[in-house]
Design brief:
binds copper (II) ion; Helix Hairpins; 290 residues; 11 strands; alpha/beta; disordered N terminus; 5-stranded mixed beta sheet; elongated; Immunoglobulin-like
């Protein structure tokens, strides 16, 4: 499998790194693909977090504001073109000021912006203020793959895009080319996941559209994002900051599983559970009793 990657000159150096930290693909249950683009689709992806529902609400709200404004401005333009061209209005007016109109076109847009802000700030606050993390994962963007570190469990691995002929081996259909990766970021369903996003060379951007999250990874800085995925399934994203020649070939795969599956997966990665948070202890005890 690695051999095919080695044939690609771009991925050759990266393959060596991947081989060093490669994890066997998880023996996870068959999960439905929930977060992926639809061919020819123009709308936002179906939301699977509260954050994404807020984003979609804002998107719809903006549409109701933008459409009337666009129609109004277009109508004004047509009105001017028809009634104030040289032929229909040969003698133009000479005045330069109209105080009531100037006050109106300052106050009305200000009120519209204030109205938009009223709905935007709560959503922004929700996105930007991190909750207490149930799971903390450090994500590093690199040319052209992702590194993941489960900081509480000493688990680390890289994530590379699958070539077309590798998809079937990993249980993916052909249409998931450019989205599916060799490893997945695995997280438990219904838990607050906090990601620390950074980069090792140039700026990258980590995103899962169905979760409504996107964060630039900037070398030397640590930024955070969080999400709480509501349904077990597979979700895809793609690097969203132009980062070089293979920018289009560093997608992201997240698998959302049950808590039991998550802990079993961690165990298979050789996780250290010494620093396991309280909510995990119960599952670990059950697993160890078996
Ligand atoms: Cu990129």
């Amino acid at each position: 499998m690695r051999l095919t990657k080695a044939l690609s000159p771009f991925a050759a150096a990266a393959t060596l790194l991947a081989a060093a930290s490669a994890t066997a693909e998880e023996f996870l249950p068959d999960l439905p693909v929930l977060g992926a683009p639809t061919p020819g689709g123009t709308a936002l992806q179906t939301p699977f977090t509260e954050l994404m529902r807020e984003v979609i609400f804002l998107d719809n709200l903006m549409l109701w504001i933008i459409v009337p404004i666009t129609l109004f401005v277009s109508a004004l333009l047509v009105w001017v073109i028809v009634f104030y061209n040289r032929k229909s209005n040969p003698e133009p007016a000479r005045f330069t000021h109209n105080t009531p109109i100037e006050v109106a076109w300052t106050v009305v847009p200000a009120l519209i912006l204030l109205f938009i802000a009223l709905f935007t700030f709560p959503a922004l606050r929700h996105q930007q203020i991190m909750p207490e993390a149930d799971v903390t994962i450090k994500v590093t963007g690199l040319q052209w793959y992702w590194d993941y570190e489960y900081v509480d469990h000493d688990v680390m691995f890289s994530q590379f895009m699958l070539e077309r002929d590798e998809l079937a081996d990993f249980g993916y259909t052909d249409d998931l080319y450019l989205l599916a990766t060799d490893t997945s970021m695995v997280v438990p369903v219904g838990r607050d996941i906090v990601l620390q996003v950074t980069a090792g060379d140039v700026i990258h951007s980590w995103t899962i559209p169905a979760f409504g999250v996107k964060q630039d990874g900037i070398p030397g800085r640590l930024a955070e994002l969080w999400f709480n995925a509501e349904e077990e399934g597979i979700y895809f994203g793609q690097c969203s900051e132009l980062c070089g020649i293979n920018h289009a070939y560093m997608p992201i795969t997240v698998k959302v599983v049950s808590e039991e599956e998550y802990i079993a997966w961690l165990e298979r990665q050789g996780a250290d559970f010494a620093a396991a948070p309280e909510w995990m202890q119960r599952h670990i005890e059950v697993a160890q009793a078996d």
